Here is the input.
Amino acid sequence: MRIQKSVRAAVVASAAVVGLVVGSGSASAAVDDSNSVVDGGGNTITVSQSDTFINSVFPLDGSPLTREWFHNGRAIVDVTGPDAEDFSGTVTIGYQVGYPASLGGELTFDYTTPGLSISSDDFTLSDVLPQAGVGVTLEPGPGIETVEVASGAASGAHTEIQIANLHGTATNIAGNVSVRPYVQVVSDNGDVATTFGQPWRFN
Here is the structure.
């Protein structure tokens, strides 16, 4: 029964954010970065990013002042301790974006989430929900902008969210753009753990 509960929790969290992972995760997934916090009940809450790949592509608008990329990877929350199965909180996926100069620039992020219907211990995918997005206007710079892109529920001892082709664009930027992905988990009791990945630089 615990395994089924863990599966359902992972599905709900994933559908609320970007992608979908079913089961307890891949044992062979390469962990890129992680961070932990111990709550007041003696539970260790660990948040990780794995299989991270941010692919810079030629911008569709053809402008030398535009950077465009797609993000793939996994956000993972593991809880160990006496109350691990009862854990509940929120997972947030975001970026820190650094830039040397903005000429009225803007950051945009967009993604889609699969719909989900659950019946008893089974689940089925339904229609894809409308695309969601985030837009941020940049100061002249140089600067670093922190942007929360998506969030969802974490529940139980293991929650895994698959990020599939989360799309990002930076427009009207002079110079290189650096993108550092992060994942944060906040428990319902207010305990916080955040992990930052390596920066990816786009020329």
In short: Residues 2-202 form a domain with the Immunoglobulin-like fold (CATH 2.60.40.1650).
